[in-house]
Specification:
Elements lengths: L2 E6 L3 H14 L3 E7 H7 L8 E7 L1 H10 L9 E7 L5 E6 L1 H6 L7 H17 L2
Antiparallel strand pairs: 1-5, 2-3, 3-4, 4-5
Helix pairs in contact: 1-5
Length: 128
C-alpha cells in the first residue's frame, strides 16, 4: 500500500496536538499546517469533512537525502494528514516514504527512507 493510516478516537485537534508532541520527540518539526476545509470554504467551496495536512521535516535527514539526490526534494517535506472520514471517524495517515522513494530509483537512499518511515509510523501510533 502507498499509505499508512490509522483510526483514533481523538478529535482532529487532539490528534494534531499529540502528533506535534510525538514528532518533536523524533526531531521532526511541523513546518506548515494546512486546514483544507477552511481554505476551500474561504474560496467559496465546501468540503464536508475536516481535513488537515501537516508538512513535517527533520532538518538533518532532509540535508542528508538532498545531498545524496536532489530529486528527493520533490517529496519534501513529509506529509501527515489528519481528517474525519465520511463516517465521522478521525484518521491519521501518511504516504509511505519507502514507496515514494522508489520513484527516484536510487537504492542508496532506500535505507534512509525506511528509517524515516518507521519513525513517522511510530509517531502516528503514539498519537492514536
Amino acid at each position: 500500500m502507498f499509505h499508512y493510516t490509522i483510526e483514533t478516537p481523538k478529535s482532529i485537534d487532539e490528534a494534531i496536538q499529540s502528533l506535534e508532541k510525538n514528532l518533536k520527540e523524533e526531531k521532526f518539526g511541523v513546518q506548515w499546517q494546512f486546514n483544507v476545509q477552511e481554505t476551500l470554504e474561504n474560496k467559496g467551496f465546501e468540503l464536508e469533512n475536516p481535513f488537515t495536512i501537516l508538512e513535517v521535516c527533520n532538518p538533518k535527514e532532509a540535508q542528508s537525502v538532498l545531498s545524496a539526490n536532489q530529486l528527493i526534494g520533490y517529496f519534501l517535506p513529509c506529509k501527515i494528514v489528519v481528517y474525519n472520514d465520511k463516517h465521522g471517524k478521525t484518521k491519521i495517515g501518511m504516504p509511505r516514504p519507502t514507496v515514494l522513494i522508489q520513484m527516484v530509483e536510487d537504492e542508496s537512499i532506500q535505507e534512509v527512507a525506511a528509517d524515516i518511515e518507521k519513525r513517522l509510523i511510530a509517531c502516528i501510533e503514539k498519537s492514536r
